């Protein structure tokens, strides 16, 4: 968790070489018969100030589908929730009851995980399909219904198998019930910043190449190198794409909840001409300290 002052625009750049083709080969769909990716509303990344509310039930509806999108300016097949990337932010309080109705409109089974939200006695809502529970069949729904325990902090939800590499991800923020320590930094607003690497090639194609005897580009064992990176779903590649913008008030302090929802590459985050104050790491409060930037590993 970090804080910055003044107005600024956020952008993400990754120095990645283009190591593989733009072949998104998927036997089940072509770009011409798919709906287009919808823009994620800005308010998905501004938290709602519900911290401190009494425990209650918070309900969400997720529809998983396939779309055509171009997060970095390059058209690709994508798997998304509610037609957008990133998907809806789940913001709750410690002790809240969460109900998420997930409908699978894909042609293959689907499985979600609410990462780091401890599933005490509801382990069947977490884990890989076929291990803790079956995947959701095509055209069917599953209701995730559980009460949060002692966990609080900044984390994320995502699909299992390689489907999350194809963009089924979103932020999960759990506000603690207890107040912060005495003299802990305060802030005027809270923002979610989701950082990720991005592949132009569909994940099932990459996985098949990676596991094949000849590997990717003819080298066995080579991991697939990302083509680009995104910040809150937007990135740049080959002179195309765009940046995600936050317009903030001057002389205000903002808590930035950084989440790395990518698959392979580490990401370094910084804000030009601003110092960041780290106050939380891996959902654990830490003694505040100032940095020029932070490097985040996957998850």
Automatic annotation (TrEMBL):
Family matches, as PANTHER family: LACCASE, MULTI-COPPER OXIDASE
Cofactor: Cu cation
Keyword Disulfide bond among record annotations: yes
Domain of life, source organism: Eukaryota
Residues covered by the Plastocyanin-like domain: 68-177, 191-298
Annotated protein name in UniProt: laccase
Pfam families per record: Cu-oxidase, Cu-oxidase_3
Chief site of localization: secreted
InterPro entries: Cu-oxidase-like_N (IPR011707), Cu-oxidase_2nd (IPR001117), Cu-oxidase_fam (IPR045087), Cupredoxin (IPR008972)
UniProt-listed Enzyme Commission number(s): 1.10.3.2
SUPFAM superfamilies reported in the protein's UniProt record: Cupredoxins
KW Heme (keyword) present: no
Molecular function terms, GO-annotated: copper ion binding; hydroquinone:oxygen oxidoreductase activity
GO cellular component: extracellular region
Catalyzed reactions: 4 hydroquinone + O2 = 4 benzosemiquinone + 2 H2O
Keyword set, alphabetical order: Copper, Disulfide bond, Glycoprotein, Secreted
Family: Belongs to the multicopper oxidase family.
Cell location: Secreted
């Amino acid at each position: 968790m970090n804080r910055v002052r003044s107005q600024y625009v956020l952008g993400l750049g990754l120095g990645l070489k283009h190591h593989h083709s733009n072949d998104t080969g998927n036997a089940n769909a072509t770009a011409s018969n798919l709906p287009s990716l919808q823009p994620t509303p800005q308010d998905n990344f501004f938290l709602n100030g519900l911290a401190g509310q009494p425990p209650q039930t918070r309900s969400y509806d997720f529809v998983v589908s396939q779309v055509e999108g171009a997060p970095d300016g390059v058209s690709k097949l994508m798997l998304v929730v509610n037609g957008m990337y990133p998907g809806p932010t789940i913001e709750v309080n410690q002790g809240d009851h969460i109900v998420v109705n997930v409908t699978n409109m894909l042609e293959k089974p689907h499985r979600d995980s609410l990462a780091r939200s401890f599933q005490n006695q509801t382990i069947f809502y977490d884990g890989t399909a076929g291990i803790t529970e079956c995947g959701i069949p095509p055209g069917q729904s599953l209701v995730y219904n559980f009460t949060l325990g002692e966990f609080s902090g900044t984390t994320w939800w995502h699909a299992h198998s390689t489907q999350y590499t194809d963009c089924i991800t979103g932020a999960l923020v759990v506000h603690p019930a207890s107040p912060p320590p005495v003299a802990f930094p305060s802030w005027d607003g809270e923002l979610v910043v989701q950082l990720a690497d991005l592949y132009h090639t569909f994940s099932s194609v990459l996985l098949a190449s990676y596991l094949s005897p000849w590997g990717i580009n003819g080298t066995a064992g080579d991991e697939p190198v990302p083509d680009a990176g995104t910040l809150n779903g937007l990135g740049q590649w080959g002179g195309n794409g765009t940046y995600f913008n936050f317009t903030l008030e001057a002389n205000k302090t903002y808590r930035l909840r950084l989440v790395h929802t990518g698959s392979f590459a580490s990401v370094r985050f910084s804000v030009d001409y601003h110092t960041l104050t780290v106050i939380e790491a891996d959902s654990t409060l830490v003694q505040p300290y100032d940095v020029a930037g932070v490097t985040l590993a996957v998850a």
